[in-house]
Amino acid sequence: MDVQRSITDRFDTCGDYLVRVGEAIGAARTAGLPVIYVVVGFRPGHPEVSPRNKSFSAIAGTGAFAAGDPGAEIHPAVAPRPEDVIVTKRRVSAFAGSDLDLVLGAGGIGHLVLTGIATSGVVLSTVRQAADLDLRLTVLADACLDADPAVHRVLTGKVFPRQADVLTVAEWTKTPAGQESDQDA
Questions:
Q1: Structural domain spans, the chain
Q2: In CATH terms, is domain 5-180 a member of 2.30.42.10?
């Protein structure tokens, strides 16, 4: 989630992070699991962004994350394949302003394996909303990234385990991911 150029470019350690995300994507594909990318995106002029929205109002009118913005592209190190689904969201949660719930329902998907930037943003918001939708969740802690390492540790070590299994990419790829009881993404 949110592995877009404008976001990944903010992190010096993103190279190692992208390798881990790529390993998770590769393992999912090998197991025959669908891969769903979630990106933040807006129409030209950002008509979806309210001036009251503290998170997004600063980019309104800048062209950021709108069609044609190279920074809105998914990082090429983890680029989607034609068979992958790309969901565009309009807020922090992967569900907010997107058709993710429709994609999951149509695919019979009841278990999500989450990665993303930032742990305290899209990952946290998506974990909370997905748990409320009774989805089974796995968070790959080392395939999540946050500007504040302490916040990342608290979320992955104390908060997320209340609603999700929290594993490393290496731990997750050791188990046959395709042998889950529900279909995964």
A1: 5-180
A2: no
The SS3 of residue 138 is strand
For residue 119, give the DSSP letter: I
Assess whether pLDDT exceeds 70 at residue 181. Answer: no
The tokens describing 103, both together, are 């994609």
30: CB partners within 8 A, 6+ apart = none
Q: How far apart are CA 61 and CA 102, in angstroms?
A: 30
113-169 pLDDT, tens per residue?
999 999 999 999 999 999 999 999 999 999 999 999 999 999 999 999 999 999 999
* Three-state DSSP state, 63: coil
Rounded Cα–Cα distance for residues 147 and 95 (Å): 22
Q: What element of type H or E holds 104?
A: helix 100-106
d(CA 119, CA 126): 10
Cα–Cα distances in Å, from 74 out to 3, 53, 128? 6, 24, 24
Q: What is the pLDDT of residue 183?
A: 43
